[in-house]
Amino acid sequence: MKPFVCSSNDYFNDPQVAVDQDWRRVSGCQTPFTGLFLLHWLLWAMFYSVNIAISLAVVAIMQFVLTICTIYVDPEDPVARRGREAGIAVIDTSGFCNICNVIQCNKCVSNFDHHCGYLNVCIGKRNYLLFILTSFFGAILTSASAIMAGYAFSLIFKDHARFNTTVFKIIQSNTSGLPELFASFLFILMIISVFLDIVILSLLGFHLKLAILGLTTFRYLDLKEEVENGMSKADLSASKKLLRLLCRQSQNQVNP
User: Fold this and answer.
1) CA 20 to 30 Å from 147, out of 79, 209, 226, 241?
2) pLDDT digits (tens, 9 = 90+) for 153-185
3) DSSP readout, 49-62?
4) For residues 48 and 193, is the Cβ–Cβ distance under 8 A?
């Protein structure tokens, strides 16, 4: 029996864990969950409530729908699925896939990119675009939360009386200490929003780099390790590749 929550995606790499060949993860809502997955939904609930309050409900709902679609779209390779259903083992008895070097979900994923602990699902050809869109709208939500929380927090210093009046109006109470408590909430929300915004934008920037290089995350990490160990001379610089493409295009225009 698998646990409800495991500490990390390395759970299935533990040699002490017996691999059930009849089990495979169809969606991210199957146990075991990771701590990252539960944290993701906790943070999403907080940002959803905040963004509803600042009239970004449409963006929040779109991000929610995209997240659910990313989690529930099964990225398993159709050829591998047909083979598995016909009784042909794609993954060996240890649960290890020698093509993708992935063990968490016990299935072979088309164009495997990575296993996302936050969504508890493998990202591949069938749900990669959904994953990018989910991240993009997530960046909008965290950016909006950071800006609005920062603006509201700044009112403490610009117009303290107005801030107190606004807090009392929102909470429908004039209890002593509420403005200070609300200010603390705004400050924490602003810090968390800025941190998450940086993380998500860095993730999107990394995937833009991968798109330029024409690589998946899995292949990029493999090549990076080979380069570091002197086993490959692959150029993993996206800016250099862009520059080469621009130079080639310029030459083609000069010499049609």
Assistant:
1) 209
2) 888 888 878 777 776 666 666 667 777 787 888
3) HHHHHTT-HHHHHH
4) no
Across the range 34-49, mean pLDDT stands at: 80
Q: Which two tokens stand for residue 99?
A: 């093509």
60-96 as b/e, with b when 16 or more CB fall inside 10 Å? bebbeebbbebbebbbbbeebbeebeeeeebbeeebe
Give the span between the Cα atoms of 238 and 140, in whole angstroms. Answer: 25
Which of 4, 130, 153 has the alpha carbon at shortest distance from 74? 130
DSSP per-residue letters across 172-202: T---TTHHHHHHHHHHHHHHHHHHHHHHHHH
Structural contact between residues 73 and 125, judged by C-beta atoms closer than 8 angstroms? no
Distance of CA 13 to CAs 62, 82, 97, 202, 228, Å? 35, 26, 12, 28, 25
15/252: higher pLDDT: 252
Beta bridge partners of 87: none
pLDDT digits (tens, 9 = 90+) for 73-84: 988 888 777 776
Query: Which residue has tokens 């539960």?
Result: 38
Residue 244's SS3 state is: helix
Give pTM, 2 decimals.
Answer: 0.80
Tell me the average pLDDT across 29-40: 81
Collapsed DSSP state (helix, strand, coil) of residue 76: strand
**Distance from C-alpha of 244 to C-alpha of 246, rounded to nearest angstrom:** 5
Mean local confidence (pLDDT), 113-119: 88
